[in-house]
Amino acid sequence: MHCTRCKGTMVADYFIDMENSGELWMPGWRCLACGEVVDPLIMKHRLAQEKTPEIAEAATRKKRKALPVGGVKD
């Protein structure tokens, strides 16, 4: 599996469930290069966002906005 952020290698990992959804340890994936974490709940939320065109379009517009050089807005 490859990371969606950096295309690095993802490895299986276990994470502590802080929401107490029933399991103490949740299986997931972690990127060795950038540290991106993906678990079943994250995937569920990402898929839900992709199915909502308005949210996906707004996120795309937000990514395209760039700050001026120096990172400060006028």
Automatic annotation (TrEMBL):
It comes from Candidatus Nitronereus thalassa. It comes from the Bacteria. This is Uncharacterized protein.
